[in-house]
């Protein structure tokens, strides 16, 4: 099978931070959400996949093209929407499109202007005079206009109003309906994962905690609540726990051993996974 994105044992060392052995693949026609707390490495990983950072070791391939050995063809398959604007702020959206469209053989200027109209982006206004949300919309219009196969988005809903945020989720879903495109996006808004993601990768302190389908994630774990003594009976199924003055809550593996222990059992949320998989020592004490 040819994957849209292959990230193989990627390491990236910065001055005070490192990505360590990141490894996953993304098939055509799917959306992967990248989640983790601030500073977990989401933006560093995305910048490495885009070639904005030179990886220390490992391999990145986009539609089979190696990002180092075949950079032009690999990047030609990429569309991106970044939290930090990579375009020229002293130029208008239209001028930016004219400048950067030359890097993409399939860029369609008519399509770009239609998307600008749809997203209420004034193509003649300089980017530095646009709001952050409107710059995100411009980037989205550009990314959708050159037949990219992989869309990479870093906090794409940042700065967007709730109405367009929902429309963005619909646009992301529509973009992959053809079956030959995929999306990797980072977010701290867990409802976005619930709405559109097929796969989830959780990062913590530069390390890949888990990569799995959203369906398998929900099937494999449960949140349980009970006394400290009852939660202790669930070891070694406990991934992490939170202690309050009234009860103990824990994320546990969904196994038969957790049944009939007198605990309340619930299906986790994406927020639960991000909390328990990205907490130091997987344990948090909370006093109310």
Automatic annotation (TrEMBL):
InterPro entries xrefs: AAA+_ATPase (IPR003593), ABC_transporter-like_ATP-bd (IPR003439), ABC_Transporter_VariousFunc (IPR051782), P-loop_NTPase (IPR027417)
Keywords: ATP-binding, Nucleotide-binding, Transport
Ranges for domain ABC transporter: 5-230
GO MF annotations, alphabetized: ATP binding; ATP hydrolysis activity
Pfam families with a match to the protein in the record: ABC_tran
Protein known as: ABC-2 type transport system ATP-binding protein
Provenance organism: Anaerosporobacter mobilis DSM 15930
